[in-house]
Amino acid sequence: MQHNEVIMGPPAVLHKVAREIQEYQSFTPEEIHERTVQAKELLGNRLVILGHNYQRDEVIEFSDFQGDSLKLARISSELPDREYIVFCGVSFMAETADILSSSDQAVVLPDLAAGCSMADMADLEHVEMVWDSLRTLLPVEELVMPVVYVNSAADLKAFCGKHGGITCTSSNAQAVFRWAFERREKILFFPDEHLGRYTAKSVGLQESDLIVWDPYLPNGGHTPEAIRHATVLLWKGFCSVHLMFRPEHVRTFRSNYPDLQVIVHPECCEGVVEQADLVGSTELIIQTVSDAASGTVWAIGTELNLVNRLKRLQPDKKIFFLSPTVCQCSTMFRIDPIHLLWSLENLVDGHVVNRISVPADDKLWAGRALDRMMSVGC
Ligand code: 13P
Ligand code: SF4
Question: What is the pTM of this model?
Answer without folding.
Answer: 0.95
